[in-house]
Amino acid sequence: MTKLETVQAFFDAYNQHQTDAMLACFSSDAMFEYVPYGEQGKGKIYESAAGIWGMFTDAFPDFTVQVGTVTETADGRVVAETVNGGTQAKDVMGIQNKGLSQHVPHVFFFKFGADNLITNLKAYWDNNSIYTQLKHTEVHA
Fold it and tell me: Can you give the residue range of the structural domain that contains 16?
C-alpha cells in the first residue's frame, strides 16, 4: 500500500467502526497526539488511541469521518482535512447525552515507516465547537 492508501484505509475503517482494521494501518510502536486533549491526548496507538476511537464510535453510533483534502508532502508525510461527527447516543467524556449532533473540522498529520505503516499521528480540532454543538458547558482554553 502507498502512504495515501494507508491513510484512506484508516479513515475507511474508522467510518466502519472497525478498530482492528484501524490499528492495522499502524506500526506496533506507533504514537499519537490529540492536541486538544493536552498531556492526556498523548501516547501509544495500541494502548490509548484505540480506546478513544471505540469510545466515540460507541457514544456516536452514526459517527463518520468525511475526508476532504489529503496531501502527501515533499518529506513523505500525509496531511488530511476531515469533518468528524455524529449524533450522540450515550454520555461520553463527561458530556451528557442530549441526543444532539456535532460535526467538527479536523486536521490529521501522519508520519510513516519504510513499510508505509503509520508511525505517528497528530490531530487538531476545536473542542469548544464540539461542546457548543452538544450544549455542554465546559470550555477548554
Answer: 3-83+106-126
How far, in Å, CA of 67 to CA of 56, rounded? 17
Whether 100 is in a domain gets the answer: no
* Chain segment 86-127, per-residue pLDDT in tens: 999 999 988 999 999 999 999 999 999 999 999 999 999 999
C-alpha cell at 127: 473542542
- The whole-angstrom separation of Cα 121 and Cα 32 is 5
DSSP summary character for residue 135: T
Share of the chain above pLDDT 90, in %: 89
What is residue 95's three-state secondary structure?
A: strand
Give the 3-state secondary structure of residue 141.
coil
- What CATH number is associated with residue 32? 3.10.450.50
- Strand boundaries in the chain, DSSP class E: 26-34, 42-44, 64-72, 78-87, 101-112, 118-125
